[in-house]
Design a protein that fits this description.
- The protein is mainly α.
- It has one domain (about 1-230, about 240-445).
- It has helices spanning about 1-10, 10-50, 50-75, 75-85, 90-115, 120-125, 130-140, 145-160, 165-190, 200-220, 245-270, 275-310, 315-345, 345-350, 355-390, 395-415, 420-445.
- Helix 3 packs antiparallel against helix 11 (about 245-270).
- The longest helix is centred in the N-terminal third of the chain and has 38 residues, at about 10-50.
- The chain is globular and about 55 Å long.
Length: about 450
Amino acid sequence: MNKLIEFIKNPEHRLESKQLLALAAPAIMAQFAQMSLGVIDTIMAGRYSAEALAAIAIGVSIFNPIIVFIIGIFLALSPITAQYNGQGNQQGVRQAFQRGLILSVLLAIPSSILLYNLEPILWAIGITPEVIPLANGYLQALVWGLVPLYCFFALRFCNEGMFAAKAVMYCSIAAIPFNMVFNYWFINGGLGVPAMGAVGVGWATVVVWSVMATGLFGYTFFAKRYNGYRLFNDWALPKFKHFSEIFKLGLPMGLGLGMEVALFGAVGLMIGRYSVPDIAGNQIAINISSLAYTISLGLSIAVTARVGYHIGKKDLTQARDTGLIGICFGLLISCLTASVIIIFDQQLAAMFTNDPVVSTVAVQLLAMAALFQLSDGIQVNASGALRGMKDTKVPMYICAIAYWLIGFPVGYVLAEHYGMGVTGYWVALISGLSVSAVLMTHRFFSLTK
């Protein structure tokens, strides 16, 4: 640890560290605000009923792998825009923004069809019967917000590639009060709206996504930093070749991120066959660990933009240093968040539920959540550095190996054949993330020798 601190304090690295953190701070706040939306959903659903909380847990377990695959595709816009920015290519920046928005509408169509027809899968998996109508209603409500959500993704990653992370932060923070007000209204009913419970959380989320997309579009349209770029002029008819670079980079990233989140989703669905306290306790632990993870994730977004910028300027040495600084900061942050989770586990669980049985399950799982913070902080920043270099195929294979050839099989055997239950599946998370951290870091150092 001392060597890591000495590396960051090295005078040659201080300037890049300051620039990286200046970009990372608003990205972290934006990511934290967005993750807080899900945490607020969980808290308010949990206060309504254990069944509502379980329904949200199941719905999120299915929705997240799908949406993260889509995010992976849009993530390609960040290194693409960052490298155009490093090259001073205004036309390339304009095309990145426009193609991202067109892609938002195109990708929303198949996503909507899929989300609206998932009920048979819920029955096939064996989800607790009383939870299925609530979880399905929640997912069907989300369909109506996919177009604004995808537009927000496109604008977000293009803006972050242009180092405009503060705009994303402000839009994300502004969405929080809307989330709280509409959640309360739609969950409990009033003013002519019936009480909808878990389904109301879905409709409140649609409102929040629309607010975020509108705000970020307004910033992008009026921001002085884009004077001369003519971002919304000279639109070209969409052709597949126009999106080839986005798909070439984004599909492997989408599959890689999808496999990671699918591991968490699969764990949630397997636990969904257990008791309601197990389902609810797992969801609480996942929310708390995910909230801690947002700090490293926000940092990785800045790492991608900075590495991509240096690659655009053809400065491989600086790109390597930036990636290494990001990995070091990720490890330091993870040590801090793990400590907080261990020390305040009881208080954190109490924020989500008054049920003592659910709280006991959550506290037990939080001890394991603290463990995987370390490997998660390393792997997300190493993969962020690789994205900045437009290296996406090998990381996709790493995700397949780490999460599905090692992580999930280990957890399944421990849970189902050695009687470890929920704990066994959390071993799957720790195993997969640890293997990913080692392989992602090795890959980055290999490419930047």
